[in-house]
Design a protein that fits this description.
Layout lengths: L1 E3 L3 H12 L8 E3 L2 H11 L3 E4 L8 H11 L4 E6 L4 H10 L3 E4 L4 H12 L4 E2 L1 H22 L5 H11 L4 H8 L3 H15 L4 H10 L13
Amino acid sequence: MLLVEDHPLFREGLAAAIDLDEGFTVIGRAGSGEAALVEAARTHPDLVVVDLGLPGLSGVETIRSLLGAHPEVKVMVMTMAEDDCSLLSAMRAGARGYLLKGAAREEILLALHTVGRGGAVFGAPAAERLAGLFAAFDSASAREAFPTLTAREREILDLLAGGLGYRQIAQRLFVAEKTVRNHTGSIFSKLQVHDRAAAIVRARDAGLGPTPRRPAHG
């Protein structure tokens, strides 16, 4: 395993904690992205832990360069960065895991084992952000797919696609059942469908209802 971290105390403490696990051996340490590329070429690690806040070459660029030169390597991020941009950038670069530096040792080791086996792991804060991002993505996809629907009509269509009946939807939204039926009639007209089943098919194709969500954590 190669540790890429510019703070010596954190790097050495992490190395000591990891070395207590018989499943891992820390074979290299680097304090910058540039040094990480040199160490990776020298040691050929299976797993690399990368901090995003590196001096010089950024953590994301380091991940991208590492995987470009060693595509078989598995990368896990350990960082203080909690923002959406950092999380998505790391994922796009090829990171398989994302933990914050405050994670407990047991959580870190479990994540390393999972990533090492080819899985993906995101700590609770990152998983919550991913869930929110994907929910926003699905909502945006629905708006794009059904631009003529109002926000309330999309909400009702989503609930219809989720298998709820008119009465259940009315109870969920605190409106009269007749109101739900009126909205549904408008939905059918705008989608140019003749019945509820056809509307549900259109809705699920657009990502509404009980379609499989993207995994937020492993």
